Amino acid sequence: MIANTPVSALIGLFLMALYFLMAIFAPLIAPYGMAEVVGGVWEPASANHLLGTDNIGRDLLTRMIYGGRTTIFIATAATLVSFTTGSVLGFFAAVAGGWVDQVLSRFVDLIMSIPTLIFALVVLSVMPVTIPVLIVVMGLLDSTRVYRLARAVAVDIEVMDFVEAARLRGEKTRWIIFREILPNALSPLVAEMGLRFIFMVLFVSTLSFLGLGVQPPAADWGGIVKENKDGIVYGIGAALWPAVAIATLAISVNLVADWVLNRTTSLKGGRG
Amino acid sequence: MGPALRLVAQRLALGLLLLLMVSVVIFAGTMILPGDVAQSILGQSATPEALANLREELGVNDPALTRYFEWLFGVFRGDLGTALTNNQDILTSIVGRMQNTLFLAFWAALISVPLAIFLGLLAVRYRNRWPDKLISAVTLTSISIPEFLIGYVLMYFIGVQLGWAPTVATVYDGMSLGEKLHAIALPVAVLTLVVLAHMMRMTRAAILNVMQSAYVETAELKGLTMFKIIWRHAFPNSIAPIVNVVMLNLAYLVVGVVVIEVVFTYPGMGQYLVDHVAKRDIPVVQACGLIFAAVYIGLNMVADIVSILSNPRLRHPK
């Protein structure tokens, strides 16, 4: 198993595991409290503060670990919302066909014709910016992309003999969606999941960076960039660390997703 | 009327219809959401009188449909309403900022489009050799990086450490073109990097697609040099997909500009939108959202029309 895995995927898996473990065990690993002021403003890296301190003297490494926890949690939850909504609606549109399919698909086209970030900004201007609201808004906006993929895959499966057989023996729509189509559409969807997750990480970081995502004192990677960006002009690189974390996480998920996609190509009936 | 013209007319009509629907979505997105808009603007501690005043000012007491049509007809007349926060006319605030944003996007496009096509050609010329692999690796990395990271990395190393370009892109009317270009050097560089990767990968794919056709093989057998084959045979036939790619990326640029303007505190539309989202100034958010969406839809529409017009099978009906 390991011998056949390409080095790039191993690196990706290793970094991904590292980030997820750090997110889960954040309170155990972090050397200080999340919002605890432990030193001067923007102290350089030292034995006590491995990455130095931030704009109000909190330990940057601690902020980074807790920030990763928030970012990864929101991104994961939003990906789940996006996948559940998008794939269920996509399968439903493919199975129902006719005007249901038309209405859903044209509505998705409409939503996708507005840039995602702009639409999110418009919606967040009237909603209270809390973590559940962020997750739902991001997840629903992104579910349009999952919908298109799920519908495309399901339309191909829907004409297969076993679906026809299930129809003829009188199964309900719910059975056809969850027992006939879902198992066969799973592998292309799982490969897509990695890309959607990256998009969510970038999305929530961008929103927080703009000040419209996770609100202080809670930490998240985009927010840490925002808090420390003024230091850049004085040559203090504190804002670069979370940005590097976002980039390495995104690249490692990308490498793993590529590998999963290559491995499962044969399962997709040659569509890959 | 040729089939190409009919298709173009159809696409134009579809674009306008889409724009109208988008205005409904944007309006609905800010108005008919759960919760009291006035409450979420003023916060929990607002007095009932202040809430009632703000509701009156927002016109929340009128039915939603009336307010939508008043807003829509206002937009048609060029009246975008007044900002809640400073009572200024939104249109006059937006015009100057829009010029700044277009200025930034124009220079980013001017640099990134030729560069992306050149690098795409280079990647095809040296396919599967080190220049191609290097370009692929760099593009994969830059796709995975948020725009603001590229912005701050460039700001840190080029702006602060080397001191070659200003870290804050301030632009005002009295500046000469040279001064303005110097001021926006870093944001243009970032935007170029952001769209370059996509554009280059798709250019490469478009040309590689053409390279597999029979006439390219003929040219190869005639003994033409690789570069001549690409330049004379493959490139003209891949213009349509490349124009499409360029347009899609310009549309992407429109969104990228929002974040980059905040990074470099550039006085453009993006900064204006973000500031007023934070202040919950709904009329401004609606106006900016509509303009951004219109530009995005417009560029996508141009991409479609160009690919219809450049298809010779539609241009010369039998």
Describe this structure as you would to a colleague.
The complex is a heterodimer of chains A (272) and B (318). Chain A has ten helices and no strands. Chain A has helices at residues 7-24, 26-29, 60-96, 98-112, 116-124, 131-158, 161-168, 173-209, 221-228, 240-264. In chain B, helix 5 (90-125) runs antiparallel to helix 6, helix 6 packs across helix 9 (185-211) and helix 12 (239-263) packs across helix 13 (269-278). Chain B has two domains: 1-85 and 279-318, no CATH class; 90-278, Orthogonal Bundle (MetI-like fold), CATH 1.10.3720.10. Chain B has 15 helices and no strands. Chain B has helices spanning 3-31, 37-42, 48-58, 64-76, 90-125, 130-144, 147-161, 177-183, 185-211, 214-222, 226-237, 239-263, 269-278, 282-309, 312-315. By secondary structure, chain B is mainly α. The mean pLDDT of chain B is 78. Helices cover 78% and strands 0% of the residues of chain B. Classes of the chains: A mainly alpha (272), B mainly alpha (318). Chains A and B meet through helix 5, helix 8 and helix 10 of A and helix 1, helix 6, helix 7, helix 12 and helix 13 of B.
Taken in chain order, the helices and strands of chain B follow as HHHHHHHHHHHHHHH
Q: Treating each run of at least 4 consecutive H or I residues as one helix, how many helices of chain B? A: 15
Assembly classification: heterodimer
The first-level CATH class of the domain at 73-213 and 248-271 in chain A is given as Mainly Alpha
Helix content of chain A: 55-70%
| SSE series of chain A | HHHHHHHHHH
**Annotation, overall tally of beta strands of chain A:** 0
For the largest beta-sheet of chain B, the strand count, sense and barrel status come to:
none
The CATH topology name of the largest domain in chain B reads MetI-like fold
Low-confidence stretches of chain B: none
- Our count of domains of chain B comes out at 2
Q: Count of helices of chain A?
A: 10
Transmembrane segments (chain A): 6-30, 72-97, 117-141, 193-212, 232-261
Keywords (chain A): Cell membrane, Membrane, Transmembrane, Transmembrane helix, Transport
Family (chain A): Belongs to the binding-protein-dependent transport system permease family.
Membrane topology (chain A): Multi-pass membrane protein
